[in-house]
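Feature request, filed as a ticket because there's no other form

It would be nice if the structure record came with a short human-readable summary line next to the C-alpha cells. Right now we just get the raw output. Example of a typical job, pasted below so the devs can see what we mean:
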Amino acid sequence: MSLFTKLFEAVHSWRRRRGGSKTRTRKRSDLEMEQLDHRQLLAVNFTGVVATDFSPTNVPGVVNTGDPANNLKPIIPPSLQGVISVSGFQIDNLALSYSSTTDILSVGVEGPPNGTTGQQVIAADSDNNGNSGTVNPSVTAIAGPAFQDPADMGGTKTYGVTFDLTNSGTPDIVAGFPQNNPNPDPTAPKPFEVAGYLGGAGQNIFDNTKIYPQYAGSYYLVNDPNHPNFEFQIQHFSQLYLQMTGHALTPTSTFGVGAYAASAQDIGISDERFPLQTITNPEVPITPPPPPPPPPVVSPTVYVNYHQNNHVNTAHPEAIRVNILGSSGFDPTTIIPSTVKLGDPATINTTGASPILNFERNVNHDQFPDETFVFNGLDLNLPSGITTVAIEGQTTNGTIFSSEVKVFNKDYSFYTPAQINAQQKSWLAYDKKNGIDTTNGAVPPSPVIPKAAQQLAASMAINDLYAPFKGEKVPVQVNSSLGTAQAASSTAAPVVVSIPTKHAKAKYVKNVTLSNVNMSTSATSSSFSLAGGA
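Raw output as currently delivered:
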C-alpha cells in the first residue's frame, strides 16, 4: 500500500468530536493532519498487520509471546454477547523485534479474529462493529447511550504495552496511550507516550510525572479492518534499558513484557490484563556486509627473456628475466615482490617460483617505468618445449595483475644422461671448493646475474613464438627417460613459420609438429650447454 493511500485511510479514520464548532473542528483537522504526517512518515514500515510486519521470514529474530494461559481477557456481559462477539481491547499476542543498528525496539499488538470477516478486531474498537469511533445502534439499544466508543483512543480509552526491564515482576515502563489526555486542549488527540508504570488498581497506569518523550518513536494506528493492529517503536531502547537497569543491553538480556487495555465507557465489558512474559532480547541478527568485489585483474605486457627470444632453461641455474611494462593504467614499480609468482598457469598457486631479484628499468624507453623480476631457472616448474608461463602478483594499492606469455622451456629432457652427470660432477666440484655441504646431493650454484642488465628496448611485443631460434633448429629431446621426445609427424598439417634473420629476411619452415612441447625442423642444428661443462 502506498503512503498516500495510508494517509487517505488514516484521515478518514479521524472523526469530529460531538458538539465541536466548525471553527474548532477545522482547527483540529489541521492539528490532526500534522499528527498523521508525523505518524505515517516515520512508520512507513508498519502496515497495521502484525503477522506480515513481524514475520520471522522478513524480520529474523522476532519474538512472539503468544496468548498465555493466564491472560485475563475482556468479558462480554450476557446482555451484549448476542451483539458483541469480542472486544477490541482484547490482546492475544505481542510481537517484538530489536535492531541494534538503529537502537529501535518495534512492537506489534495483535487482537483476536473479529468473528465476521476473518480479520482481526480493530485495536480499541469497543463493540467490534468494524469502526473504532462509532457504536452499533443495537449496542446502544441494550446498554444505553452511556456505552461510547470514542475515536482515536479518545475518552477514557487506554492501551499500553508494559515492560519489566529489571525483571522484578513489576513493570517499569509502559508505552501506548494513557487514559487521561495530557493535552490542555481536550479536542486534541492523545499522544503516544513512553512513561513510567503507575501501579494500583486504577485504569490509569501511565505515570504523568515520568514521561520520556526522547524514547517515544513512531506508531501506526488506523481505523481500518484491513489494518487493525496497533504497532509502535521505542527509540534509543538500549539507553532506556541502561537507565532503568544500570546495565548495558546485550543479545542475551532478558526482560518481561505484558499489556493492559481498558475503557471506562464500554459499559459492562471488563479490562484486558495481559500478564508479563519473560523474553530474551529480540535482536535481529546482524548480517555481515557482503565482501567487497575482488579488484579487477589487469594484464600488463610481459616479456620473458626477450633478449633470448623467450627461451628459458629449467635444467640450469639460469637467471630468467621477466620485464613487466608500465602503462597509463598500471605502475609495475608498485608491485609487492613477495606476492609475485612465475610458473605454469594451472599450478602457479602451489608451484610458482618467487623472484630472487627485482629492479626498475625502462625496457621500452617510453614515458612509463617498467619493472624487471629475476628468477632462478631451477625454481621454475614448467612443461617442456613451447608452453605458456604466467606471472601474477599484487600492487601496493591492492590491484591484482596476471599475464601470460608463450616461452620455450628447455628442461632435462633435452640433455643426455652423460650431460646430466657432467653437470652434477661440476656442481659437486663447485660445492667442495666453496665448502658447501653435499650430504643430500649436489647443491647447484646461484644464477649468474650481470652487474648491468644488457637489455635492449622492445618497441613491440614478440609475436613469432613458433620460431624461438632465429633461423636455427629447435632442440630435440634426446633423453626419452626424462621426457617424451617424438619425431615429427609425417601426417601433421604443414605449419608455415616466419623467422626473421639478421638480414631482415625470413625463412619458411614447414611440417613443424607441436606435440607435447616437441618441435622438429630441417634447419641447422644449435648447441646448448649446462653449467659445469655439461
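Something like this underneath would help us a lot:
DSSP finds seven helices and 22 strands in the chain.
The first strand starts at residue 63 and ends at 64.
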